[in-house]
Amino acid sequence: MTKDNGRGSGGARNEKKSSAGRKVLKILGRLGICFLTLLLVLVIGIIGTLMVVYYGPSTSARDRVVLTVTETSAGYILATWFLPKSTIEEIQRNNTVVESGDVTNTSLIKIPGSSTKKGTDPEDPEATGSPETGENPDDPEYDINKTELIDITGKTYRGKLLIVYNPKRVFIGTPEAYGEDKKGVTTINMVREANAMYGINGGGFYDTGNGNGGVPTGRDNSPGIVISRGKLMWGYKSSTYEIIGINRDGILVLGKMTGQQALDSGIVEALNFGPYLVVNGEPCVVQGYTESSLNPRSAIGQRADGAMLLLTIDGRQPTSVGASYEDLIEIMMRYGAVNAANLDGGSSTYMVQNAEDENDPQIITQCASLYNPRKMATSILVSRVEDTPED
Question: Disulfide: which of 7, 45, 80, 234 matches 226 by Cβ 3.0-4.6 Å?
Fold first, then answer.
């Protein structure tokens, strides 16, 4: 008879389980060490690369990186870790769009139906028709309610340009109310709630960390203004803003003015952002010896025949790094913009298209946000034909 010494089959199994558990823990520990080592190498590599860029011989490379990372709240720290604020501000001042100081000359825009219609061909300013399309607004078959969606590509970017022939279809989308205790609405939801046909992001908003879109701003978190359907929804009548507006005739109006001046001039839709890209047919000058940063970007423009140009450029993607201000100016000029302005960009940038026969909007570009689409203070929307305000 065999004595039970406590090391029978049950004890052996427990010992095997314990041994297997130790092996698993050892493997996990080694994997953890490998992961931490890889992460440390990556961090050291990034820091080393930034040190070389920031303190190396190429000031152009330094400026390009600084301009790129400082255009996003998440990446700003990659500049402030290495460079003093005064240096960053100097780089930004030396590499920006020069303000023209002009206000839109509305007589340059001749919407079909007016007495005079000039074309927008830069080689022949008296010719009828429009760049890239060659369509003639005097043609009886000219469809003012037409829209065109065009794929845009460049060396470092890809995106989409929407041409809206009837400018009165374009309006500012907003949440119900603004305030520090309020929240914005994503562009796709603004399109859905308005049953609009298209939408892109609009102006800036105060970002407290989660960017809830409750407080509209201009560039660099400057005070914001919003006018929608002729109503001042945010801002002060006595304060001056960098206006991007649309008047009751459907003309895009750019210029610095007070809220009261904007309302008195007949502006019924407005926000403030920038910089301006094209003013009265003249491209704005980007100063500095290096191009501005490459990022996701949005812009609005208008041709001489009144057609609105809504542009979004994908960025921070393997197939589309982004565009510079120079790129936006080139695109807007190529498609005949008489006036054009930069909108909020970065992770706010994307375009939405709705279905023709139902209210089912979809994002049709690449959103750079790591999370869900951001809640916005304003969006630029395009109404359905039947919802377009009458003259």
Answer: 234
Q: What is the largest CA-CA distance in the chain?
A: 118
Residue 162 · residue 171 · CB < 8 Å: no
| The pLDDT of residue 249 | 96
The pLDDT value recorded for residue 41 is 74
Quick one: which of 274, 173, 168 has its CA closest to 224?
Answer: 274
Instruction: State the chain's mean pLDDT as an integer.
Output: 83
Q: What CA–CA distances, in Å, run from 140 to 135, 168, 250?
A: 11, 20, 21
Domain ranges of the chain: 10-94, 106-387
Query: Is the C-alpha dihedral spanning 230, 232, 234, 237 positive or negative?
Result: positive
The SS3 assignment for 127 reads coil
- Residue 373, preceding bond cis, omega within 30 degrees? no
Q: Outline where the chain has alpha helix (H).
A: 9-55, 59-69, 77-80, 85-94, 187-194, 259-264, 325-334
Residue 126, pLDDT score = 41
Q: Other CB atoms closer than 10 Å to residue 384's CB: what's the count?
A: 16
Mean local confidence (pLDDT), 168-172: 97
* pTM flag (> 0.85): no
Q: Which of the pair, 242 or 73, is modelled with greater confidence?
A: 242
| Placement of tokens 């812009």 in the chain | 299
Q: Which helix (H) or strand (E) holds 233?
A: strand 231-234
pLDDT score recorded for residue 116: 37
User: What CA–CA distance (Å, rounded) separates 216 from 222?
Assistant: 9
